[in-house]
Design a protein that fits this description.
Helix 3 packs antiparallel against helix 7 and helix 8 packs across helix 9. The N and C termini lie far apart (75 Å). Strands 1, 2, 3, 4, 5, 6, 7, 8 and 9 form a nine-stranded mixed beta sheet that branches. By secondary structure, the chain is an alpha+beta fold. Strand 2 and strand 3 form a beta hairpin. The chain is built from ten helices and nine strands.
Length: 282
């Protein structure tokens, strides 16, 4: 496919993409988009500043004075209103895109002004684990995980943050997550509670505890649910809602990934083992 008409007005980042997924968090919009091999997107611009992560494949990204070779592992910035064109390679491209709300330049992202203000390209293979975690979150119904992973990835890409001592506030974050097992915790609320910027918060939490905020909170909710399946006569659907999941299907999908079996099979296996123990004790 060839886009032969030069685009004068701002267009969505999905222009020319036959397949994409999108999660709108307000402050940051997350899009996972695929583009066809050897496609050409003529010069255009976007309303929001874009930070893109090349997942697979690649394309040439051409601005008025410079062309970047965006291959897998690249991180590129397209400032809002900056006209550019794309020429896809032989393998097409899959791109994870963060679109930044312009108003954030005066708030949360003010310290990233230099990073976001001009076209740029860097090779950042070190971001691959965080990038893939965000891709996985985008495909789930867990908005809190999407938000946490998006801010963490943006923080890692944008600038080296000073490594703060995590002892006090990181432990406080963990306490808050354990105290709020039954509802999603928004990153902005955790940041406000601790007085730590949410981008820095996500980064240091992962460094300290070995997993992202969203993954940690989901895991302890699943651990709590497993205990309820052993102790409680409540239905699986009731436990799912009490554990903060949107519905039983959502809960079942994550529980099976966590425990290796469905909640029903987990409960049945536990009850069977208890019967065996009682029969043996007689």
């Amino acid at each position: 496919m060839y886009c032969g008409m030069e685009c004068c007005s701002a267009v969505p980042v999905t222009m020319g993409s036959p397949r994409f997924r999108r999660r709108d968090l307000g402050a940051v919009r997350v899009t996972d988009a695929c583009f066809a091999a050897r496609d050409v997107l003529q010069r255009h611009s976007h309303e929001r500043t874009i930070v893109g992560f090349m997942v697979a494949g690649g394309f040439d990204l051409s601005f008025s004075r410079r062309t970047f070779d965006c291959v897998a592992g690249s991180v590129f910035v397209e400032p809002a209103g900056e006209r550019h064109g794309n020429r896809l390679g032989a393998d097409g491209a899959r791109v994870l895109v963060l679109e930044i709300d312009p108003d954030l330049s005066r708030g949360d992202l003010a310290r990233f002004e230099e990073f976001l203000s001009a076209p740029s390209l860097t090779r950042r293979a070190d971001l691959t684990p965080a990038m893939r975690q965000l891709l996985q979150a985008v495909g789930s119904a867990d908005s809190a995980a999407v938000e946490a992973n998006a801010w963490e990835l943006l923080g890692r890409a944008a600038a080296p943050w000073p490594r703060a001592r995590p002892e006090g506030w990181a432990e406080r974050i963990r306490e808050l997550l354990h105290d709020n097992l039954h509802r999603p915790m928004k990153l902005v609320d955790l940041a406000r509670e601790t007085g730590v910027h949410r981008v820095h918060l996500g980064r240091v939490f992962r460094d300290r505890f070995g997993e992202s905020l969203g993954d940690y909170h989901r895991r302890i909710r699943l651990d709590w649910a497993a205990r309820q399946l052993q102790r409680d006569e409540a239905t699986i659907g009731e436990i799912a809602l009490r554990a903060g999941f949107t519905d039983q299907a959502h809960f079942t999908r994550f529980f099976k990934r966590h425990a290796g079996v469905t909640p029903g099979a987990f409960r049945e296996g536990y009850q069977r083992s208890r019967r065996v123990e009682r029969d043996t004790a007689r």
